[in-house]
## 1
Amino acid sequence: MAEETESKNATKPGEDRAALNRQLAQMLKGGVIMDVTTPEQAKIAEDAGACAVMALERIPADIRAAGGVSRMSDPAMIKGIQRAVSIPVMAKVRIGHIAEARILQAIDIDYIDESEVLSPADDVYHIDKTQFKVPFVCGAKNLGEALRRIAEGASMIRTKGEPGTGDVIQAVRHMRTMNRQIHELVSLRDDEVFEAAKKLEVPYDLAKYVHDNGRLPVVNFAAGGVATPADAALMMELGAEGVFVGSGIFKSGDPAKRAAAIVKATANWQDADLLAKLSENLGEAMVGINEDEIKTIMAARGE
Amino acid sequence: MVVAVQYISKERGGEQSHDVTGILAVQGAFAEHAAMLDRLGAPWRLLRAADDFDDSIARVILPGGESTAQSKLLHSSGLFDPIEAHIKAGKPVLGTCAGLILLAEHVQTADGDTITDRRDGPYFATLPVHVRRNAYGRQLGSFHTTAPFEGIGTIPMTFIRAPFITSVDDGAEELASVDGHVVAARSGNQIGISFHPELDTDTRLHRMFLSL
């Protein structure tokens, strides 16, 4: 079916593919993307109303606890999750690991997360994502990082936050930083954007887009440390277009209930009465680690 | 087209007293439909909770997104009943992509093996068609094309992990097809399409819907 479509229809590689990949992210807006490690967890996530799942062998909290080198997941495990659900399936590759990305594209993944949660494969270069047909999402702490990833071909951005901690402070810091820098860029005179692009270390055309439109040219989600319905609502309040929840769901006492509550909180983030109800009796939240108690700062990987 | 951030938090546009288009806004690309209606100068309101639905709503748009997520949120938000009553009263409804799946009487899995009759379940199931989910495959099967649409002419069509209609059943008529697969159908004032007119700049399909 896909072959027939490609031969007959007008989608050209390059620009149309980049547009289609950004548009898939648009369909995910207002939704929750959940980390899952098994087909059973993927079903729980889908039934709770997740708009996509992230397939990985170990969730960030366990990666953090286990230490050692963390890599792309086994393709067989990812395929098992693809068979289990009809929603999009994402998976992570190490920063700069071109071969892992090619492998995920070969198994028809819906979205690749070039992620600081895994051990970086390259401490200088990110993947040239313009060379791939599948879309990429990348993490960013500030506007400069976000626009550099977009220049490399990312079709969706998320805050880095600090994965596997259950501590939302870094996601908040990254989202506020990005928004403040966007506002600053918007407020400049046209002839000041050249200098701003230089300072941000980003291509001029992307700085100009943000200056003219007051937003990133791709969808921007929150990620890293979201553990409760209130955390999700906080990130939406700060301008996130949706949220990733990693360890927060399947490290908690009642994953199905918490997952459904976070989905509803993300959709109805302005409704405080509903948030109050959703926050009741969710069982134990993930334990969490404060940012000053952790040894590995994943957000510092890849600038 | 990426939509301005203001649409994510903006709840309404234009004159609000009557002839308002309600846009289901629980998850997905609802802001893109709002931007499209702004281009046409038509009043709209985002439907997030049951309170948002009142007599001023003349027609409803069910946007793209993930149909399972939308279906859960339709029920928990209390919007399912008023929208179902609206459809059953014969008032206009437009479902795009996930919205088509919410409207379809029968839904098939991507491989076509399992067919679910949704008329018994908690779905609208008011449009007499069989729809196959993710019929073009995963994201690598997404594509953009142009094709004729009944009564409008040739329009751009963007398919994102799209379904298509495998059977147009009694009471429904085909509106468009691409490569031999039906991608739009109508029954009375219900229109279900498998592509995303809100992602292109051509406003003709929305204008036609506003005329219903």
## 2
Amino acid sequence: MVKNKSFLSERIGEFVRDLTGSGTGRLTIVGSSILIFFIVLAIFAPYIAPYDPTEKVGLSLEPPSRQFWFGTDNLGRDILSRVIYGSRIALSISFMGVAIAFLIGVPLGLFSGYLGGWVDRILTLIMDAMYIFPGLVLAIAIAAVLGPGVINISLSIAVVYAPTYFRIIRNQVASVKSELYVEAARALGAKNWEILLKYIFPNVLPSVVVVLSMNLADALMTEAGLSFLGLGIAPPTPDWGFDLSSGQRFVLSRAWWGILFPGLAIVFAALGFSMFSEGINELLNPTIRERR
Amino acid sequence: MSYAKDEIVLKAQGLKIHYHTQKGYVRAVDGIDLFVRKGETIGVVGESGCGKSTFGQGILKLLPAKTKYEGELLVGTTNVIPLDEKEMKKVRGKIVGMIFQDPMTSLNPIVKVEKLFHETLKEHEPNISMEISRERTARILEKVGIEPERMREYPFQFSGGMRQRVMIALALVLNPDIVIADEPTTSLDVIVQAQILELLDELRRSYNTSVILITHDLGVVAQMADRIAVMYAGQIVEQNIKNKIYYQPKHPYTKLLLKSIPNTNPKDLQLNFIPGSPPSLLDVPPGCRFASRCPFKMTVCEKEPPVFEIDEGQVKC
Amino acid sequence: MSLRSYIITRIILALPMIFILLAVIFFILRIIPGDPVLAILGGKAPIEVIQQKRHELGLDKPVIVQFFDYIRGVITGNLGTSTLTNRSVFEELKDRFPATLELTIFSFLIVLVIGLFWGAESAWRKDEGLDIVARVYSLLLYAIPVFWFGLILQLIFASYLRWLPVGGRISAVTNFKIVTGLYVLDALLSKDWRGLLDVLRYLTLPSITLGLVISSVFLRMVRNNTVLMLSKDFVKAARARGLRKKIVLYGHAVRNAFVPIFTIMGMEFAALLAGAILTETTFSWPGIGSYLVMKIRYRDFPAIQGTIVFFALFIVVISIIIDIVNALVDPRVRY
């Protein structure tokens, strides 16, 4: 284990070096700055937003002006305030969705890979089936049955991404469990759960971290898609995807501000997540890029 | 192109090939003088990293785009150094064929053998029909000892030795004047190695092709070469006819290289090797490049060594 | 193994996959909390009405019986009856499927052309201008939600410039004979050129929207895999034979680059289908995606389940086709 620790610190050292030097490092910095920006926006929304996002504060469909920087929507609500508050739903659902997926996929993957046998085979088959299924369709189906709500939408997203974690963890565990140090621990009488938690889990963690960061952008987009289809959280809570679908009704009236700003928010947040994950990805696991 | 007997088909004069890397230029080939006569085999030997493969691929200018070529390299009567990609294409395959080290990776595994031949023939003879190209493929495959019917198969269905035969056939199908064989047998097992060398030699005779045989294996050149050039750190340190190199080596590096060949003599218990390693070609020290490893080092060796003409050969010491 | 026996084996192997997919769909829709009957009727419905509805939907039978009813239904092409229209879900899907197929085919063509040529040329000139633009393009479009991209194109080309229609699939004025349901093909078959132009005008924005967004990942895969292949010995050997760039790049490097791409092509197609749902909703495109969304609004659960099963079968069929094309490109798969 001592050997392993020095290896990890080596990695972190490399990480810092790369972060400050190469182009990938810059990508990571830009990505994480965008992320931090949105997190700050979400936390301090009441102090940053100029108006109450759910109150009628102006006329209907006012174009951007000094009073309303991003204009107003059809109900006379300030779009800037709605975009700022919208980051709360977007971030909390994507973080929660990925976290739940992690909590379902990782333990299942650990046990399935470690135990092997028919349990493993059946679980793998089921997870594979879910994996090849279009994620959004699955999420739509679950969200349709569960109904709106932050937890429900997070759950629908989690079900889409859980198989990814399951697969990665299962395959890694299956290959790690025959490594010498695991065999040695077993010979010394370590219990199954001890082996899993102390020896196997720390070894498969880095690859999961990469996927975790990559999934955040996808989860954000899935959430936006679900709420665009009317499957998100219930109005009038500000939500970028939902605001876009109400903005769509005024495409022909050329109310571009109702479409441009919530959409830009999604794009920037998704860009932030994916630049961040791209950076993390290349720093932790240089070979993955070749495969994508 | 036609040549009189003894005509020179390739001539390098002061040839330099420098790679571009982030740390600067690697002087992989740094001033080579060499000629090849029609129909002869010249062996280029040296340790790995001495620049012999760079030389081989440099003849066809196959190296990365930013590589610098200097000096003169005559293929036939044309200097290829100033030629661009488009003009080089007429030289590649048609005048100079090439055989690579690893037949497992140098043939596209998922392109049918007949298609590999057809695309090659069509490139140089645009009006060729599929039938004629099949006919010619069949003829050359037979020559290298492969049943012509196998041209319908994919390279991944062939064994290593068989693939190398296909590779040789592919290099010879356009009847080039020169064939560069870059470590053609290194990745094969010993019996197959001997067969492939024999085949190559036989084909050289029947087509009257010149062969540039690049290898680190002195046994391979002993079997096949007429003349031998010994390379060290991007330069040719000694060249002469085969027997002179083997029995009267002049350069200390050649001597040590010959001593390091493993043999089956039971009294010879120790495996000889040359201590030290060649200098970095990124930053070459002045003077003789072998000096740091040379057992006969003298103070003169700190200066750039001249090339002596001795005993019908050249030595740079 | 001959290509034909490979295809047959592949189809037989798909059967268990279909069964598992069907089972997963069934149990996910059953296991998760939430009662479809309550969702349909609302919480205040009297108990008799709820019982009645349960019986209608077959929900009062044991789960395992329900499951086998459902499997039998799928095999016989019976996906249930819509509670909204009382029509067979299968019939409704059959009417709407050609629209989705047409949209996905055209989008896929755009994905293929952009990914293949741009990806290959970027790989050939790695780190030069074209390649850098390709990298920015794929990063940017990866982060753009397909529906938002569609809305922006609607704003520009339909609302401001008025060049193209904002949504729909066909004008009321065109009347060519509908045979296949793929309007472009039908217009071509009836030689109705004005009709063809009309249909293409409707198809342009949705297929460009979906095609460009999906092309981002594909472009990246083609580029990266081609870069990898260009460093291989067989590429150098092909150049050493004097082959021109076109053959070296497309006949050797790109061809081999597609071998690993095929393994994830199914995922790409799944992404295309998911994107189609959003694109159809954005452009009021009358395919199965907008059908699903509409049915969700009306809580028509048999139709929802039927549509999802349909998507699953579609995915399996596509993955079989991908594997067959893969076997054509890479003969090693067959041996």
